[in-house]
């Protein structure tokens, strides 16, 4: 039986002033898509959010979607705290996920 993985992730821009919360079933593919700006009119392209600073893994899509919605509802300070607990330096994790 195939194991499913769904990722809730947070991207930021180079100066770490804007954040974006998303969900996907392939984190490496989705990060590459954000980096390549496949949707030039989208939020992440407009604000240059292409740097991964946080992610978590879920087995079930319904849990991942609920978590994405929960995080999106938080104030910025709480999102910052979540990122800092996972990634204290707000390091860009793209290469860790993409394997480059």
From TrEMBL:
Domain GIY-YIG: from-to ranges = 4-81
Q: Per its UniProt entry, which superkingdom is the organism in?
A: Bacteria
Signal sequence interval, chain numbering:
none
The record's listing under Gene3D superfamilies reads: GIY-YIG endonuclease
Q: Which Pfam families match?
A: GIY-YIG
Entries under InterPro entries matching the protein: GIY-YIG_endonuc, GIY-YIG_endonuc_sf, UPF0213_domain
PANTHER family, sorted: BSL5627 PROTEIN, UPF0213 PROTEIN YHBQ
Q: Which family does it belong to?
A: Belongs to the UPF0213 family.
Q: What is this protein called?
A: Excinuclease ABC subunit C
Its source organism is Mariniradius saccharolyticus AK6
What does the organism's lineage look like at the top? Bacteria, Pseudomonadati, Bacteroidota, Cytophagia, Cytophagales
């Amino acid at each position: 039986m195939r194991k499913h993985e769904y990722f809730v992730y947070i991207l930021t821009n180079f100066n770490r002033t804007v954040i974006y919360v998303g969900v996907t079933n392939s984190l490496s593919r989705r990060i590459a898509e954000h980096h390549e700006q496949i949707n030039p009119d989208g939020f992440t392209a407009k604000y240059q959010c292409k740097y991964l600073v946080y992610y978590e893994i879920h087995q079930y899509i319904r849990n991942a979607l609920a978590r994405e919605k929960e995080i999106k509802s938080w104030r910025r300070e709480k999102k910052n705290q979540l990122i800092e607990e996972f990634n204290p330096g707000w390091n860009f994790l793209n290469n860790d996920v993409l394997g480059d």
